[in-house]
Amino acid sequence: MKCLSYSNRFYYKELSEEDANCIKKDLILYNSMLHTAYKKLYLTCFHGVKDAVSLQKQLKTRYGTNDYFPLSAIHEARALLKSNIETNQRLKKACTKRIERINEKIRKENKSLQNWQKHKEQLIQKSREHETSEADYLYEVQIVNPNIKQLKHRIRSLTFKLNRETDKLNHLNLGVRAACFGSRKNLHNNPEAYRYERRKRMLITGRRQGKYSNNLFKYHLESGIMVYRGTEKEVHLPIQFYHHADKLERAVRLPHNT
User: Fold this and answer.
1) Among 13, 16, 83, 254, which has the minimal tally of Cβ within 10 Å of its Cβ?
2) What's the whole-model pTM score?
3) Degrees (nearest 5) of the Cα angle 159, 114, 108?
4) Is the model's pLDDT at 112 over the cut of 90?
5) How far, in Å, CA of 88 to CA of 46, rounded?
6) What secondary structure does DSSP assign to 135-191, as a single string?
């Protein structure tokens, strides 16, 4: 069974300037590769753009790193693209259901409106024949007319909602929207937050056949030190895992990790 464990948090100020700069540089490098990989995969998936050289080799040659950064970036980019496609399908399905519900409400309101309009026509006909009474007049003014006015207002509101949902569905049918790393909202309103969000994290996937799972991280149980093999140097991080510590220890002591 898979489990997730979190470590204690540490800050750049707790590290030496050289170690902090090494991590920051690798974060920028990884996220640049992630953005490039996503763009390439998006163009291949929706525009049929294909390259003779594999994406892994392209990233490795362009950025001059080992296999782990490109492979991890491609893995995350594929997962993100798949998530975007599934989200688009889910939104289209939900939008279609809302349109069906609105159409059904409009149909019912129109039917009720027609019935009340028939009542009004009958009252008008009685008035023309001089057969109307005070009760008929009060019924028309206090009940029939307000109901007709209210139903027309409801139909207008529902029609507005229907047009809005139809526009959303048409927009979704145009295709999957490309991801904006860092948030489109931050892009227009907060450039500093946008730059931070674009490069704040790094997800390195493991490889079972590797000696240290992914050859970039090795955790020493006895000392509680996580060794990160960066592009410039090794960084020793004081990290403690509190949840699922027994499972983590078992995984670290597997033959391919020792």
Assistant:
1) 13
2) 0.77
3) 50
4) yes
5) 13
6) HHHHHIIIIIHHHHHHHHHHHHHHHHHHHHHHHHHHHHHT-PPPP-TT-HHHHHH-H
